[in-house]
User: What shape does this take?
Amino acid sequence: MLASWPSDDHRSGRRNIVAKDYCVYHADKAANWNCLGCGTLLCQGCFPASPESARQLYCTLCSGNMHFLGVANSMPPFWSQMPRFFAYPLKSNGLMFLVLLAVLTMASGRLLHAHGAVAAVLIFMIVALGIRQGLRVIEFCSQGRSKPPGIAELFDGNSTAFKMLGLAIAYGVMIGIAGRFGMPGIAGMVGLSALLPASIMLLAIHGSLRDALDPIQVIQLAARTGWSYLGLILVLMVTAQGPQQALGLIPAATLVRLKENSPEVLMALLVASSAYFNMVMGSMMGYLLFQHHQDLGIRPDAEHRVAPADNRALEMARAAILVRESRYPDALRHMAGMVADYPGDLPVLEYHHKLLCASGADPDRVQLHTERYLKALFDGQRKNRMTGVLEAACRVVPHYKPKSIALRRALAEEYFLQRQFKPAIGLIGMLHKEAPTSKELPAAYYLLARIYSEGLRDDGKALMILDFLLKHCPGHALSGDIENYRKVIQSLGQPGQAVA
Ligand SMILES: [Zn+2]
Ligand SMILES: [Zn+2]
Assistant: This one.
């Protein structure tokens, strides 16, 4: 178990972005669950429960309360994702958007003198598209989607561009007012600027200006994301300088020439690089939101949604934990309970049977449950697994045979297919003494005759068995087959007579 810092973070439900907890059984898997009683940390595979479970989930080892660590713990830390944020706008949808903005900017530059009104409309479109796209990027990333929004997805009927304008005006007014109050006012301005990203994020995920300006929601968002939020602000401040820095990369002479000859190209470059850094910042904000989506009530994208609660899987996982802790009697007891709850379930029966045979402590129970498990395999058309189950039981109860003649015949047939004739004969060879009145006897002995003839090349024994059947079970449904088979053996055994 890796120590986390700060250690009591899980209890408060807050997580930091640097430290990470790992599963006690999987050193390379981030933990999703933590027992508040004994501190055991488990990955989703070891504790496949749903965080939306209505019941309080308990720890298998100590019965303490299990606490969901949230997706944030299993997600890579914010800092490690920097290259991903900067590569995000370069995916096809993002590139297409950048090209669209650049083309619109060039067009508006060309039209500026001749058709001022058209150019103004274009410029308005560019600004509105830029804002709408930035907000949708935040929204998409907050749901864990990896692809940027397509251009068609920007026209979803929500006039967030105007709301964003409203948001900017509201913040401008508040900052303006704060500016009149000297030193405390400056502190207020800094605080307000720090809360602006939270408002933008709220606008992106809720699409409403009221939510974005609700001081309780804004402060709650910043508080819930904690230190990550402060880190985000620092990164955003640096990233916001991006377009300027990008322009600085162009040699001064080229810049002057562009300004004189084709200012619209320069404008297009500036707009596209602003949009690029907008997307980078949007993906950063979205990632932070996604890390905390459970706390913030954001519905994740389908591929990130936690699977619905599967009680059976969780109970199976509990047994596996008990085995890992070498608590075999507890594991066995747990599995016996599961067999009662899921009587026809093959994986449950299989695991129970394995544990039972491995412990070897209770031969009576082994016999009882082997019969039950074999029957389930037989009914479920999983006959090829039957011989392995029988052999496991025989290691605890030597010479064990199922009571059911139908099961024995099925097992013998499997052994026959595997060309293991001795164990096949061992299962059904003495049925005329063990179960002379069984309805299964003719079919079993017909199989026995085939094993002797086709497997052991002992036609004499095979004929003896067939004769016994014809004598003791006259008029049986299989009589025709038995007689035919008898004729075949005879003809093949005596080629001279077969021709005649
Ligand atoms: Zn515990
Ligand atoms: Zn694990």
Remarks:
- The chain has four domains: 1-74, 79-291, 310-399, 416-500.
- The chain has 26 helices and three strands.
- The chain has a mean pLDDT of 86.
- Residues 405 and 439 are 9 Å apart (CA to CA).
